[in-house]
Structures are given as structure tokens and as C-alpha cells.
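Backbone description:
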Amino acid sequence: MTNAPTFRLPQRTQAERADETRARILAAAIRQFSREGLSGARTEQIAKDAGVNKALLYYYFQGKEALYAAALEEVADRVRASSMAVLEGSATAGERFLRSALNHFDRVYSNPGFQSLMQQEMIRLHRGEENALTTLAEKVFKPLVARMRGVLAEGIVSGELIAVDPSQIQLAALGANVFYFLSAPLMRLIEKDDPLEHSALKSRRSTAIEYLGQTIFVDREHGAQLAAKVLAATPMPVGDVEMFYGARMPKDARL
């Protein structure tokens, strides 16, 4: 009788373990800073959530401010990569814009931590306090805005999209997404249905793209078909908007 061969998983290198530890710390930091704000978050809790001791946290990040900056940059880089991938696709300009608008809705819905961090930074900017928006604007948002408007201009020149200022289409599409979530607590007081309930979010998600299909395309039938195609190809992600758009608001975001 022969013994069955023993298979061993390759051991992780020190660099791989370090990358994994750093990633756990960043994930815990994003959750804490999103919920509690920069001033309210505690490095002790971040270390505990990441499964490391506080000394190791400070080994990777030299202080709370540095950790906050790294957390913000981490989520911003994800946003940029995801958004650019959609805008650089091989579809027509109109379809790429619909996919980008849907990607934006899904990002707000499924990644409220980023929205919370951005809200905090905008308030710090408004107050004249030190903030990270100047750096993020150059690194993340300026390239995204330019590429999105370039896609819209491409669609206008080709005759697929209506001939209006591309920035107006962009503001109308993305602004509607943002307003829906920001106004949700007020709309709860006005309407009988909860705008953050899953079925309401699912309906709003579809309606937003269907509306664009009917309004920004020269050929409405073509726009409607593309909207249906984009929605069918993109399942609704898992999200947790209640934590950030419901009862709680980060301490740094309270005026």
C-alpha cells in the first residue's frame, strides 16, 4: 500500500504577509473613519478590528493623520480604476456613458465609506481647514471628469447623443444619483416609502438609466435598447447605505 502524496500550500513570503497586514489595517481604517470621522476614530479600535497591536499599526502608518490620508487615497484609487475601466471600454460613447452613470450609482450605493470620507473633506474645505481634496482633485477627479466629457463629446460628434454642453449631461446624470442618497433622510419624512429600502433602490437604479436612455440619445429607441442592455449586464451590487445615509452621520460631517 502506497501513501498518498502530501500537498503543501506554498508559504507566503514576508512581503506578502506585510501587504496583507497593511490591507487589513486600511480596511479597518476606512470603516472607522467613515463612521466616526477623523477626530472621532480611534487608532486602538482600528488596530483591534484589523487584528494587530497598536505598535504594528504605527509601524505601517506613522500616525493617525497618515493613516487617514492612506485610507482616503486607497478608496479614491479604487474609484478611479473602476470608473476609467468603464469609460475606456469598447462600446459606443453613449453606452459607455450609461455604464459610467450606473457605475456611479452603484459606487455610491455599495461603497458609502468613500462618500462619507468625501463629505467630510468637502466640509473641511468649506471651513478653510486642511484637507485632502486638492490632491485628490488632481489625481482622481480631474482625469475622470475630462475623460467622461471626452466620451460625451465623442457621442455628440458621432450623432448618437444630443448636441448640448457635455458638462450639462454629466451634471444631470451624476447629480441626480448624489441627490437621491443625500436627500433620503428628508424624503423619508415626505413620502410613505423608504428610499433606502432595497426595492426602492433597485427601482431608482433602473429608472435613472432608463431616463438617460430616453433623454440624451438622438434616437430614443436606440437609447432605450442600450439602457436595457446595460442594466441586464450589470447586476445590482451588495451595499450598506443605511449606516451612512440613515440615522448616523460622521462626527466630522456635522455642522
Residues 14-40 form the longest helix (27 residues). Confidence is low (pLDDT under 50) at residues 242-255. The radius of gyration is 22 Å.
